[in-house]
Structure formats: C-alpha cells, structure tokens
Design a protein that fits this description.
Blueprint lengths: L1 E8 L5 H16 L4 E8 L6 E8 L2 H8 L3 H10 L9 E5 L5
Helix pairs in contact: 1-3
Amino acid sequence: MILEHAILPVRAGTEADFEAAFAEARPVVANQPGCRSVSLSRSIESPSLYLLLIEWDSVEAHTEGFRMSREYESWKALLHHFYDPFPVVEHFASVSAG
C-alpha cells in the first residue's frame, strides 16, 4: 500500500466552495482502480490548508492509472483552480519498525 500525501493551499475565502467541489470530486478518485481510501482534513491553525491522503495499491495506480485517465481531467477541472500555490504531491510507503 502507498500513501499519497498533499498539503492543499486553498485561496483564502474559497474554502466553502473548495469543500463543495471536493465532495463532487471525491468519487472521481475513490472509484479509480487501485484507490483504497480518500481522506481530506482541514487545518485548525491555518484554515486555508487541507491535508489530502489517498491510499493506493501502488504508485503506478496513481501516476499512470488515475493521472492518465479521463476522470483526472474532471478532477483537475473541479479542484485545481482553488490552489495557490499548486500543491506538492508525495508518495509514502510503510516502514517496518523492528
């Protein structure tokens, strides 16, 4: 399992519109092959920042599957105009402790 992590800097004053757009966009990604879960959280200290966490079966499920799909164009149209600056996306793998 791979965890996609992105801090989403939403333009101040557009948070409610962003949350409404994300509610529409969530099933676009959640229904993609290889997507296990989608979580969006809002910062308490910085209310224009959101944390997006998506669990994928693999990095390729995200980068080659979803990002190369027609559905990604819908995701972009719904969400990308809210960001300033554009977020950095990183992928994480679990570390075995011990």
